[in-house]
Predict the structure.
Amino acid sequence: MINFYSGAPCVEGLPGGWKIPKDTVLNIVVYPAVQTTISELLPAWKAYEQVPAPHIQNAFYIDTDDGVRISVTEDYVRYIYYGPTAKDKDYRCGEYKYAAPIVPGVKLKDVQDMNFDEFGDIRFVDAQARLNNFGIQLSNLTEPDTKWRGYIIVYAGRRSYAGEAQFKANCYKNYLVRVRKIDPGKLFAVDGGFRDQFEVDLYLGHAGEYPPMLSPTVSPKKAQVINRGLRSCDERSPVSRLQ
């Protein structure tokens, strides 16, 4: 069994976190000591939503109201996750934002995105090699199922140029569209906010599931933004230019 505890108090301008005392148990993950099938575990009187995750050959059985998620591989239970329930949402510090708009009233499955790759403030020519692999995988997934999407989430560093994250995200998307011939409608270029250092996260996700959640770590009020934008895709963040 693994427990996860609440950490620092809420920070203005950042999503997530909980308005509860530090070190309060938030999540519990239980690994069965005896091999158990999902049919043996689930109560007959309660319905769970089944969400397949074919990219990792798993499936999840989810009860959002009670905060329960069961991970299953080939009908055997891998672990049971107990987290905050639907009634606990008022204790959150702030609402999470997603990497793509969600139409109000549309019911989506739980988040089952794949974190494909991540990198820092590398040269644009070096980023292209990472983007090539990303584009190839997205094309391979899209061929049998047209609803796969690619998400390019860029976080500006604590010290950055104005609009740096969105500018770089657009650079990466435009490269994939122009060179890898990816349908622009299947790519989302997103400004994720601020982190201590410039970071890029590449995700793969499905249109029927929630997009990846944005996870900035630095409040916009504590970021040092230089009042000019980037001049080209080759230009790097102000911190990297000093190194």
Q: What stands out?
A: The mean pLDDT is 87. The longest helix spans residues 124-142. The longest strand covers residues 148-156.
